[in-house]
Amino acid sequence: MKKVAIIGGTGYGAIELIRLLQLHEKMHVKKVISHSQHGDSLASIYPHLTDFIEEPMDELQIDKLEEEVDIVFFATPAGVAKDILPQLSNSKLQCIDLSGDLRLSSPTEYETWYGKEAAPQELLDQAVYGLSELYAEEIKQASVISNPGCFPTSALLGLAPALEHQIISPQGISIDGKTGISGAGRTPTAKTHFSETNENVTPYKIGQHQHIPEIEQYLSDKAKTPIDVAFATHLIPMTRGLICTMYGQLVRETTTEELLEIYQSYYENNPFVRIREAGVFPATKDVYASNFCDIGIHVDQRSNQIIIAAAIDNLVKGAAGQAIQNANLMNGWEETMGLHTIPVYP
Ligand SMILES: NC(=O)C1=CN([C@@H]2O[C@H](COP(=O)(O)OP(=O)(O)OC[C@H]3O[C@@H](n4cnc5c(N)ncnc54)[C@H](OP(=O)(O)O)[C@@H]3O)[C@@H](O)[C@H]2O)C=CC1
Ligand SMILES: CC(=O)N[C@@H](CCC(=O)OP(=O)(O)O)C(=O)O
Fold this sequence. Notes:
Helix content: 25-40%
Main location: cytoplasm
Pfam families: Semialdhyde_dh, Semialdhyde_dhC_1
Active site: 150
Strand content: 15-25%
Enzyme class: oxidoreductase
Bound molecules: NADPH dihydro-nicotinamide-adenine-dinucleotide phosphate, ligand 2
Subcellular location: Cytoplasm
Oligomer: single chain
C-alpha cells in the first residue's frame, strides 16, 4: 500500500481525492495537509467525512514528507506547488500537481496568463502533462505530473482525434465551454454566490481564460502544427459538471458514421472515454461524479463543420479522478483502479 499526502486539505479537490482514494486498493491517505486549518479535523469542516477521516490535519513540513509518504497530491491554487516542488527535487516522491503551475512549457506564457512568476525552467521541463489518454507512455516514466485543467481535459479529448486525422482545419476552431460552480473552488465570490448564479448563465474570462494557452499548446503538439482557438466559458447554475461544444471546419468530405469509427478506434484502449452513437449527445449528468469523458459527434453537411460535445465531471476527470488515473499509470497499476464506478444518476 502506497502512502499519500494531500496538500490543500480544505479544498474541493482534496475532499474529492479523499472520497475516491477511499475505494483504492493500493493507495492510502496518510496525511492531509492544511495551510489555513492544520490542527482541525477535516470531518469538523466537512461532516460528510465523519468516521472516514477524523485525525487532525497537519502543517506542511517539507523535510519530513519523503520519510512519511510515497505520493503527494497538490490540490492547491496556482502559485503554491511551483514554490514547494523545487525543495523536493532530490526526493523519490511521486508528485501530482492539480494546479496550472506546470502545464505551460513557456515561463513567459505562464506569467502572461497567470500573472505570477513561473516555476523554474528545470521543473517545467521535468513535469509531464497528465492527460492520461493522450500521454500515457510519458506519464508511466514520470515523477512529476502536471494535471490538466478541467476545460482542457474536455477540449483536448474532443478535438485531438479530428486534428490528428486531419479532418478539420487547424484554423477557425471554436470552443464553447460551460461549467458548474464548484469549478471555482470553495471560496465564494460576488460572481459565484447563489443569487448571482441561480437562474443565470454568465460568460466569463472571455479572451482571458488561463486555459487558452494550455489547449493551444497540447492541440498543437497533437496536430503537429500551430493551433489557435476561440474559447468562451460560461458559468451554469449547477454544482458539478462541465461540457465543451466544439466547432471545426471540415477539410475533406466525411460523415458522422466515419468520424464515429475514427473516434472509437482512437480511444479503443481508453476505458474512461465513451463515444456516443450517431444522433446521441452526452449530458453532464451522464458522467456525474465519475471519471468518464463522454463524447458526441455530428458532421454538419450544411455548414461544412464538425460539432463535437465532450462532457466530464470537473472535480473527477477534470481534477481528482484524473490525478488518481495518473498515479495508477505511474505505478504500473490497472488504469481504472479506484475509479471504475457508475456515474451518480439522476
Ligand atoms: N474545482 C475544480 O473543478 C478544479 C480545480 N482544479 C485545480 O485544482 C486546485 C485545487 O482546486 P480546488 O480544491 O477546487 O480549490 P479550492 O479553492 O477549493 O481549495 C484550494 C485549497 O488550497 C489551500 N490554499 C489556498 N491558498 C493557499 C496558499 N496560499 N498556500 C497554500 N495552500 C493554499 C486551501 O486549503 P488549506 O488552507 O486547507 O491548505 C484551499 O482550500 C486548483 O489549482 C484548481 O485550479 C483543476 C481542475 C478542476
Ligand atoms: C467556474 C470556474 O471559475 N472555473 C475555473 C476552473 C479553473 C480550474 O479548475 O482550472 P485551473 O486549475 O487551471 O485553475 C475557471 O474557469 O477558471
